[in-house]
Design goal:
This protein is an alpha+beta fold and about 190 residues long. It is built from five helices and 14 strands. β1 and β2 form a beta hairpin.
């Protein structure tokens, strides 16, 4: 008996993996399929407190929204997309739907990643992908190395070297995001 085999596209494989691993974040970065387990409690608290800080800063009054786990369509390769932990987006971001619950990069003002087991993706491919996508501000709460990195204003698809912040310091959110706000390094790293 003959068996017909269908070779999956990367996008189809991502869909299958998403269904097979509920709660995992499945992304395609630079043509590479990744799956990250659900976040731990400190990671989740960091994002909750980040949202509260943006609320206090008047994000909605500034014509913006913040969202967690919303897809960002990447221009790096045809199937590439990321699902940032936290993003500040234009209030009408839903009008910029590309496909697969991913939105065009031009509606993203800021992206934050809190590292977990996939820390090398946040510090490598995502820096390159977000810069190429033109994301104005990328903040990495690097729990592996106990610091926060601020990338901003990509030029020619690249960020300059990051500004580094240590415990006890605050990270100033660049004015280009649309709100004035300083973020505690300790809260970003620990959720405290």
């Amino acid at each position: 008996m003959a068996v017909l085999q269908h070779e999956l596209t990367l996008s189809e494989a991502a869909d299958l993996l998403s269904r097979a691993l509920p709660g995992h974040r499945v992304e395609i970065l630079q043509g590479r399929l990744t799956a990250t387990p659900p976040p731990d409690g400190s990671h989740a608290l960091s994002l909750t407190k980040l949202g509260r800080a943006f609320d206090r800063a008047g994000v909605v009054e500034a014509g913006l929204e913040y969202v967690q786990g919303v897809g960002l369509w990447l221009p790096t390769l045809p199937a590439d997309f990321a699902i940032p932990d936290f993003s500040v987006v234009d209030e009408d971001f839903r009008d910029a739907l590309v496909q697969k619950n991913c939105y065009a990069p031009n509606v993203f003002r800021l992206v934050v990643e809190v590292t977990s087991s996939n820390w090398s993706d946040d510090l490598g491919p995502k820096v390159e992908c977000y810069a190429e996508a033109g994301v104005p501000v990328y903040i990495v709460a690097d729990r592996k190395h106990d610091e926060v990195l601020l990338y901003r204003d990509p030029a020619n698809g690249k960020y300059a070297a990051p500004e580094r912040y240590q415990r006890g310091q605050s990270v100033p959110v660049p004015e280009s995001v649309g709100v004035v706000l300083d973020l505690s390094v300790d809260t970003l790293l620990d959720g405290d």
